[in-house]
Amino acid sequence: MSQHEEELVVLLLRDIYGDIVATVVDTLLKYGRLTLQLISRYSKLPLATIQRVLVPLVQNRFVLYWVDENASSDNATYVASTRNMYNIVRSGMFVSFVLDRFPDTSGAPDIVKNLLLYGHIRASDYLAAQSASQAAVSKNAITLLLQRKLLTTLRRHEFNPQSDLYMRIFNRRLAAIPRSKAVSEAKREVQAHAEATEEFNVLKRVHDDINDGLVAAANGNGSSSKRGHSLTGSSPSKTVDESAVLALNHDKFAVLMRAQILVHLASQRIGKVTAAVYGQVLDCMEPKLFRCVDNTDKAITITSLEVLRSLNANIKLASAIAVRSSKKRSKSASSRVSKRQKRRHGTDDSAGESDDSMGSSNISDVESSHRDDDNEEGDEADSDDKCANNTRMEHLNFHLALLSCNQNLPFIKKVGNRGGGEWTIDFDTLTARVRELEYDKLITQKQGAIACRLLRIIRDNGRVDEKQLARIALLPPKDIRSQLTALHEIGCLDLQEVPRGTDRAPSRTYYLWYHKPKCAYALMTQAVLKTMVRCYARVIEERGRRPSIMTKLLREDVRLDEVNMLTPAEREEVRRVRGVEERFIAHMAKLDKLVLIFRDI
Amino acid sequence: MHLLENLSQPAQAMYNKMMNSMPEGHIYSQIELTELVGISDPLRLMGLIQETMNMGLVKMLQQGDELCYQAIKKEDAEKIQAMTKDEAMVYSYIESSGTEGIWTKTIKAKTNLHQSVVQRCLKSLESKRYIKNIKSVKYPTRKIYMLASLQPSIDVTGGPWFTDSELDTEFISSLLSIVFRYVMSESIPTEDDKALKEEIVYDQLSYPANYSAYPTITQIHEFVHTSGITTVELAQSDIKALLDVLIYDGKIETIDHGMTYRAILGATADDETSAEASEYDSIWSYGPFL
């Protein structure tokens, strides 16, 4: 939680839900946990109004409530959840994401839009509000969305703050451990904490079941059977459990966005085709990934065979990876290999051929197979399917090796040879690297390439003094200082003073620069959030400058028929305002991507 | 010639033997000298040495506890003989500093001469082209002198990156871009004639993961050396420094545990921001990073 994030969500709520909602949320953010009476006192609004306003807020889980079971009064307390409110920013992305994957007629986008509006809906209510034919389509869409985990079911406890839930579990556990002279009180608490954490984690992962919110189609609506035993994957015979309460799953959305970011990076660093393969790898892993952060699950592995099976046939693995050497090295395949070995083994040409080391033999294998593939493209139709599959497997492994070979940016990691090669992704390392790259990009953009060079040197060397920096960066010391102070100003670098004597004279002090990623990223994220606030404030300001046209647009008849109800001048005005609005909203989406990278993945 | 003429016959003989029997600048111990000249009487030898030393033809040195002697070339001796006493003293300190040079303040402290005397001596020595003023990279404000015939050491000049004791940024950046272009050309395969003839369209051109012919530091060094880009002699460590900078610029990366280098796809030789970077063009127009 931060000042700018709070500012942003209040601004968003003011625009969407109006002043009263914004005031209530603002009060909650300012004062923390409050009862109804206290909200009323601080916000100076009547109780009845606040009660009315809290309904949509709780519905959307923007405000969480807690009723203490032990307290004498049954007054509920309310806490604003910034994170849930921040997700409003992502609603547009969510809808467009679903639109990309599900056709407009499938009903899926409508469900998502409705959920964005209402926060959560019971499946049966949603289906009941539609005609029979529509309901069937919707039911199907909901099932699909649940299987993809883009929708999740809500339990009662998800309307409560996590800290309260944890304390309740803890207290219960603590009470269950009997007091005795042999066990100290501190030990009892430690044990209770350990047990409570475990139970709490189970509670948090309650939706990770693959059949969550689904029931067997033949079984009807029995909610008791919704926890299926099969872990083999949801079969088409599953359908939505109508008693389930549905909500959007922003955790999963972050996972999918992360995959997009990683694939984009792979296409930049390696190439389009390898990136497509990487996308497939991530797709195969996706059903087992539920969230980006706070992931205590063990590493997920997949095999090349799995990837191959689901690989899109349109991805041209073979013709895409060109094992072409530059002209001077490529006369024929054999001479190329021997030459390469000459480079590896020194000067002895013939020895290279005989004692094929593993690396070079692999090269020649892949090369020759690739070459065959090129030459016999016409004949391939009649060639054995299995053979073709084998070649494809080789090519696939070729791409996978490319993804895994870079130690600086390990897109995937090889962990075994089962199923033609077993792979895993170390997301923590990888996303840390993505953050680094993204931060470097920003610094380059803001401060220039030299500053970025200095930052990388400092990151690599830990604490560095100016002289050493100048020496490594091959830059004159006087040019460096201004860059360093500029970086210091934006919180990218910090300065440590190490006095050489007891007098702490500046001339007898080492000044060491260092970079704390966590701190730097947090400051950067704050900057980004502040920028988002400004963007949105600007959008509101632009609208506010044209009050008459904006009020006219709100009229029901105008909304239905803008073309005829507005004069040409008005239409031009509206077009201009919407253009500005669009630019800022698009800009916010870009900024949100940064927030996602630095905070949520 | 008149220096030698002033010497007695045995002293002349000794000086000639000292000059000719060993390479120039050889330091003789007393025992060596005794054997060389064939005079076993220390007092007589001492007399001869004193005689030559008076003419400035032999220098007395101390190695540990032992006294040693070094013959000076006639021309140098004449040079010193022609100097005033102060000049000779200043000159001897400058001479002993070798290729490192000596700071005027140090000369003053060592000779115990007055500032103005030192200045006068330096001026006259410089006008005779015996010594020269050099600029040190480490202490750009100090006035440092060394013998005119010597080349300043790397410590003083700062190595190949310095021209006139200033970091030659243009030279460095041009070398960086050349090295980067070379690494780039070796990192990405080019389509060969066969591919062009058969009109195979490649969506992506990559070397296999285990490709091992990316350039090593030796190859890059050789390339820079043979291409004749610069007349400055660059050591392999200098090339390593260049490559490190390229790595820190995010343009190349090491693979095979730092053995070979490969260009990063999408990096450009120039510092101009790529299209990718401008994605966030206006992010900072509102933020507190202002």
TrEMBL record, chain A:
**Composition bias, Acidic residues:** 374-383
Looking at the record, the residues that make up the DNA-directed RNA polymerase III subunit RPC3 winged-helix domain are: 441-514
Q: Where is the composition biased (Basic residues)?
A: 328-345
Q: Which residues form the RNA polymerase III Rpc82 C -terminal domain?
A: 142-433
Gene Ontology BP annotations = DNA-templated transcription
Pfam families, per this entry? HTH_9, RNA_pol_Rpc82, WHD_POLR3C
Alphabetical GO CC annotations of the entry are: RNA polymerase III complex
- Predominant location category: nucleus
Polar residues bias: where?
220-238, 357-366
Among Gene3D superfamilies, the record links this protein to: Winged helix-like DNA-binding domain superfamily/Winged helix DNA-binding domain
Write out the annotated subcellular location: Nucleus
What GO molecular function annotations does the UniProt record carry, in alphabetical order?
single-stranded DNA binding
Family in the record: Belongs to the RNA polymerase beta chain family.
Read off the PANTHER family from this record. Answer: DNA-DIRECTED RNA POLYMERASE III SUBUNIT RPC3 (PTHR12949:SF0), RNA POLYMERASE III DNA DIRECTED -RELATED (PTHR12949)
Its quaternary organisation is:
Component of the RNA polymerase III (Pol III) complex consisting of 17 subunits.
Name this protein carries in UniProt: DNA-directed RNA polymerase III subunit RPC3
The organism of origin for this protein: Lipomyces starkeyi NRRL Y-11557
From TrEMBL, chain B:
Where, subcellularly, is it found?
Nucleus
Q: Does the keyword Transcription apply?
A: yes
Name any GO cellular component annotation.
nucleoplasm
UniProt keyword Phosphoprotein, yes or no: no
Keywords from UniProt, A to Z, are: DNA-directed RNA polymerase, Nucleus, Transcription
Question: GO BP, one example?
Answer: tRNA transcription by RNA polymerase III
Family, similarity comment: Belongs to the eukaryotic RPC34/RPC39 RNA polymerase subunit family.
Described by its record, this protein's role is as follows: DNA-dependent RNA polymerase catalyzes the transcription of DNA into RNA using the four ribonucleoside triphosphates as substrates. Specific peripheric component of RNA polymerase III which synthesizes small RNAs, such as 5S rRNA and tRNAs.
This chain's source organism reads Lipomyces starkeyi NRRL Y-11557
Q: Name one GO molecular function term.
A: DNA-directed RNA polymerase activity
Main site of residence? nucleus
SUPFAM superfamilies xref list: Winged helix' DNA-binding domain
Q: What protein name is recorded for this chain?
A: DNA-directed RNA polymerase III subunit RPC6
